[in-house]
Specification:
With 373 residues, the protein is mostly beta strands. Helix content is 0%, strand content 49%.
Length: 373
């Protein structure tokens, strides 16, 4: 890592909530729980774009004997009330309904996406595009639009998001012709298929994407296997970017003897190098309720991405850096270290890597390309 090239570029206090999409519907005081996990791409003018997830939370999620959740409706945002006697609430971000199987959650915040334009070298903010913010606009997004990932494929910017609703926890797709104005194309993957991100380029004329399906049950590998069961990175292909078929072969899985024992998932968009498709992903070590998130990297075959050429899952590429959040430590709410890579951009002799730090702010790291050799 280049010394001194690791910094926060956008923080919760940088969001002007007077320009939030929730204004006009919600009179209750709110605050920015986090401005983090940004989609990341380069715009036609050469500048860089962070598509920042803004988690806007109620200052007072408890009102009398009820907890409240923010929900989008076609008529505006509303507050739903859930009796405290019927919920468990040990996390400021959410609560769980008692005695429900499967587990049912409510959120005390709602996430929307804020486009933040950066300079070409990602060292300064050029403009915050409040007029182009992306907020819930369909029932499958009623509880929020989360964790954008952006890939430039065939002259269009394709953006996946996690859509949260009582109907489903899905992946939705947006598309842009200029990197700034996005149209919602609808649901592309169904329940809890998270961390979907398109490769920046086609393989054999087809779109390719990383996915990470979640479930209630996983099955164990044999004791003598090198692999661990649980959430893993799969790969899917599509003729048009909208209709996806998973590949039959497994993708990137957690291995025994590493710190990524709880789960792994996609991070940056896979980019084509002379050696193959390079991507940064996250691995989670079990600790407390959230776990420790670190970033690792892998190299996939350029003609058949199901073939893993290299898997660097021992020494982390990136780890949480408490020094970055020292001056906003009073705003932190997670008990364990988290760095969550969400995109990268080519900058000549190095990559500019974007992600979330502590689920709180947007982090930029400059990594020399020889770090991936």
């Amino acid at each position: 890592m280049i010394s001194g090239d690791d910094y926060l570029i956008f923080r919760p206090d940088d969001v002007d909530l007077a320009r939030s999409p929730l204004r006009g519907s919600i009179d209750e005081p709110t605050y920015v729980l986090g401005a983090f996990n940004p989609g990341f791409t380069r715009l036609p003018n050469g500048n860089l774009l962070l598509m920042v997830r803004v988690a806007e939370a109620l200052r007072e999620p408890i009102d009398g004997d009820c907890a409240r959740a923010i929900r989008w409706t076609p008529e505006g945002y509303v507050l739903d009330r859930h009796p405290l006697s019927g919920i468990h609430m040990d996390d400021p971000r959410q609560f769980a309904l008692k005695d429900r199987n499967p587990r049912l959650l409510g959120l005390t915040s709602l996430s929307w996406l804020l486009p933040v334009e950066l300079s070409r070298d990602a060292r300064s903010v050029v403009k915050v595009h409040y007029d182009k913010a992306i907020a819930p606009s369909a029932s499958f997004l009623e509880y929020g639009v989360e964790d954008a990932r952006i890939s430039l494929v065939g002259g269009s910017w394709w953006m996946t998001v996690c859509g949260v609703s009582a109907e489903r926890h899905c992946t939705a797709m947006y598309r842009s012709l200029n990197g700034l104005d996005y149209d919602l194309l609808g649901v592309v993957l169904d329940h809890q298929n998270k961390d979907m991100i398109l490769f920046e380029g086609k393989v054999g004329g087809k779109f390719m994407a990383l996915t990470r399906p979640l479930g209630e049950v996983y099955f164990a590998y044999p004791e003598d296997s090198e692999w661990l069961g649980g959430p893993s990175i799969n790969i899917a292909q599509s003729p048009d970017g909208l209709h996806w078929k998973p590949l039959d072969t497994p993708g990137i899985r957690a291995r025994k003897g590493t710190t990524s024992t709880q789960r792994i998932g996609g991070g940056s968009q896979p980019v084509l190098t002379r050696d193959g498709w390079m991507l940064i992903y996250h691995g989670v070590e079990k600790r407390d309720a959230v776990g420790i998130y670190r970033s690792f990297w892998a190299l996939l075959d350029k003609d058949d991405p199901s073939k893993i050429l290299r898997l660097e899952d021992q020494a982390p590429l990136l780890e949480a850096n408490p020094a970055l959040t020292a001056d906003i430590a009073h705003q932190m709410y997670l008990p364990t270290p988290v760095v969550f890579t969400t995109g990268l951009a080519d900058a000549g002799d190095h990559y500019i890597v974007a992600g979330g730090e502590a689920d709180l702010a947007c982090r930029i790291t400059h990594l020399p390309k020889d770090r991936f050799e």
